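Next up, sample data:
>
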Amino acid sequence: MSLRIVLHRQIPDDPRLLRQWNDVALQMERPQVFYTCEWALAVQTAYRASLKPLLFLGYDGDDLIGVASLATDMAGKKIGFLAATTADYCDFLTSPPGREEFIDAVLDELRKTVPADISLANLPADSRTPEALRAAAEKYGFHIYMRPAYLCAQVELGTGEQRQELKASLVGKKKLRRYLRAMEREGPVTFAHLQSLQQIEAALPGFADAHVARFVATGRVSSLATPERRQFLQELARRFSGAGVVTLSLLSIGDRPVAWNYGFRFHGAWFWYQPTFDSRQEENSPGHCLLSRIVIEACDMDEMQVVDLGLGAEGYKERFGNSTRQTLYVTVTRSWLRHRLEMLKYQMAIALKRSPKVESAVRAMQRRVQSLRRPQP
């Protein structure tokens, strides 16, 4: 094989490239919706003010065999996956046997063309990529550091018998029946999974407003408070229109939605990607009820293998999940000092977590410093 690397500083919105790209994505060990060309194009459109795409395509003749969808910040000093802030999983795309050669070629190009440090978030630990990255980094004189990032909970549906047992265990839970009965006192409880572009676009504003309100109620700032994130979700719905991929699930009381999940059905996985619920119904756990319903329905769908609960270590995910998938955070740099600082930062973070009182004091100090840096009115 004669591998040829082509660099694009903008992702071409080209139907032929989209088909070739997605064909490569489906050759991955575990294909993900986050690896698709549609996803990358949606990120490029929504986040053009903060990210500059850096797309490496690997060709054997005219055949596309590798995709590295990367990006730099606007200053061009930091490199990461283009989808790092939006995707649960990010990776270099090739068939498994071609991973090492492609990553070697991409790292060779990076060291020659982009003088920046590389930070790769949400890389699956079970991918062949970490091993290939380590070999290429050593070859080209980079320092590489890999640390655990997120442990993503999953609901493996299993065999036909296991599915029925899982479904029966959820349907039979007294807690679920109690929540549903409480909501039914206010009106009929219904579930819906919206997949048409028109339906999703009509429901998105209510979902986004509920997400923002829920975060405000818990003293946090929702990602949907930014226009970029809202545009990103709209772009995904538009680009996947008609494919049955984007699935906005709702639990409603009467005609009033009280729980949502902006998710995906892709290649045997149903993603619990961005959920929220109406805080006024918190005591009835509508989010718990919606997730239960998704798992129950997935059990009856032969093409579904897993309900992926994604990033985040919320307790309810651990209770639902029966398996996990580890992700890594990888830094690649020529600077020995930055390499050591990255290691030290992680080791300190681990030490702080072992002492909640110290961690709380450090966070309070950080908030105090940030408040002093803000301009006074």
